[in-house]
Design a protein that fits this description.
By secondary structure, this protein is mainly alpha-helical. Helices cover 48% and strands 4% of the residues. A two-stranded antiparallel ribbon has the order 1-2.
Length: 180
């Protein structure tokens, strides 16, 4: 297994002043197992490992970063166009630094990855355009029943006598005398 070589590479990086947190150490420990075992690529296989690590006291943030680093490693070993899309992710710098530490242990030639990354920097991808949102039409405030008289906002229906009553009309307009 190359796990001892992975940890030795991580130790050399720490000796030069690089910071290694729990996510990188966990990724170095499980990288060889991740690459060799098809169980991790099966749906739910990685979740079982993450759950076991969380039960042992590792923080969710550390285990999720470990997962992101491990899942990006095969894409960096064999770069494709999806690697360019991955380069826009916030974890890419950390995954790339991890790849540069561990790639010599797996005999990876970084020339193809370097070529792909230089094309990305030479031709930067334009940021995604902001999606336009459609506004919903406003619902009418009163439901109009077909065949029924439509009422303006200043009228209401007296339910007892089924007659329309003007709400803003003065008593004189309704035919009622003022009791002065």
């Amino acid at each position: 297994l190359r796990t001892a070589h992975n940890l030795a590479a991580l130790e050399r990086a720490i000796g030069t002043g690089a910071a290694a947190d729990r996510a990188l150490v966990l990724a170095a420990l499980y990288l060889d197992l991740f690459l060799k075992s098809p169980l991790f690529r099966a749906p739910g296989g990685m979740q079982d490992l993450l759950t076991d690590l969380r039960l042992r006291g590792y923080a969710r943030g550390d285990t999720e970063r470990m997962r992101l680093i491990l899942e990006s490693f095969p894409r960096l070993l064999h770069p494709t166009r999806s690697t360019l899309r991955m380069a826009r992710r916030p974890y890419f710098a950390e995954a790339l630094a991890f790849y540069e530490l561990m790639a010599p242990n797996y005999g990876a030639a970084s020339a193809e990855l370097d070529r792909l990354l230089t094309t990305m920097t030479a031709h930067p991808v334009s940021p995604a355009r902001k999606r336009r949102r459609r506004r919903r039409r406003r619902q009418p405030s009163m439901m109009v029943v077909s065949g029924a008289p439509s009422l303006s906002s200043a009228a209401a229906i007296d339910t007892a006598s089924d007659t329309a009553i003007a709400l803003s009309a003065s008593p004189a307009r309704l035919g009622v005398k003022d009791p002065d």
